[in-house]
Design a protein that fits this description.
The chain is mainly β. Helices cover 6% and strands 52% of the residues. A twelve-stranded antiparallel β-barrel has the order 2-3-4-5-6-7-8-9-10-11-12-13.
């Protein structure tokens, strides 16, 4: 129970934080009153540690330019020697439990997540026919703090041609990929907004693909609330696969991002450039150079 103040005395836990005390948030010139978070709530976020069911936020966040990450997205892309396509992802990632603190933006501790996504490609000039869909489910085990994070996860991935595409291209070679893989990943924040990462995956069961894969890259995006003005972001990802002699694809994104006050979810709008083997695994042996405008919602 907090002590009652004397007459004329202000409550210490409601006073603004000294301007230097919010450097942990990357806001050295702001006070608690400036961002609308009472001091005692910040103390809870930074200091409490325990077991939490369905925690808010992720310890190890998905890669912004990762082509097979679970999220919500929709974009119109152009492949000059092919067609204009609608690429969309329907899915997400959710924390199941955490042994750590309750900060939704900079959590630390150990956490178990689940992820699932369907990644679909539609051919706009061909009556928006479904060309292909990749399905992914996984269970990431993550741990870390504000700067360093680790991930060990299992995922299943399978690829499927669309019925309409198959009917019109009966002689198209089938690459029905399937993978059950284990992944070890590492990420680190070099600054408050800049993260680098790398991971290696090994499939203990695979169809039409070889066991090893690697990806690496960087993300630059605000980790704190942006307000309606938003803030710039950019991201680059390289994805290498053994069946392509450790070639693969390069994905680059840039645009504008928004993050809410107390949630870690991120809304992004921007442009994407991709060059490499098709990120739709049913078309993996085929090369694509694509340009597009995309809207992403990241967990």
């Amino acid at each position: 129970m907090r002590p009652s103040p004397s007459e004329g005395e202000s409550l210490p836990w409601t006073e603004p934080v000294p301007r230097t005390s919010l450097s942990w948030f990357g806001l050295p010139n702001a006070s608690a009153a400036d961002i609308g978070v009472p001091l005692y709530e910040q103390d809870l976020q930074q200091g409490d540690f325990g077991f939490q069911l369905l925690p808010d936020g992720l310890i190890y966040r998905s890669y912004l330019a990762g082509p097979k990450e679970p999220r919500m997205s929709a974009g119109i892309i152009s492949i000059p020697d092919d067609s204009t396509l609608w690429d969309a992802t329907i899915g997400g990632r959710l924390g199941i439990f955490r042994l750590g603190n309750s900060d939704p933006i900079r959590p630390r501790g150990f956490q178990v997540d689940v992820e699932a996504a369907a990644m679909v490609r539609l051919d706009i000039p061909e009556k928006v026919d479904v060309r292909s869909t990749d399905y992914r489910v996984g269970v990431p085990l993550t741990w870390g703090d504000e700067v360093n994070q680790w991930k060990f996860s299992y995922y299943h991935m399978s690829s499927h041609l669309g019925d309409e595409f198959w009917e019109k291209n009966a002689d198209f070679p089938l690459f029905r990929q399937a993978r059950d893989a284990l992944v070890l990943g590492r990420s680190m924040y070099l600054t408050d907004s800049l993260r680098i990462y790398a991971e290696v995956g090994w499939a203990f069961y695979s169809v039409a693909s070889d066991p090893w894969e690697m990806q690496f890259g960087l993300d630059y995006v605000p980790r704190v609330a942006t307000g309606l003005r938003g803030a710039p972001f950019f991201a680059v990802n390289g994805y290498l696969r053994e069946e392509l002699d450790f070639g693969g694809g390069l994905n680059a994104q840039a645009g504008w991002a928004w993050r809410a006050d107390t949630r870690s979810h991120l809304l992004r709008l921007g442009f994407q450039y991709y060059n490499g083997a098709s990120p739709q695994y049913a078309f993996l042996p085929f090369h694509e150079t694509q340009y597009g405008a995309v809207l992403w919602y990241d967990f």
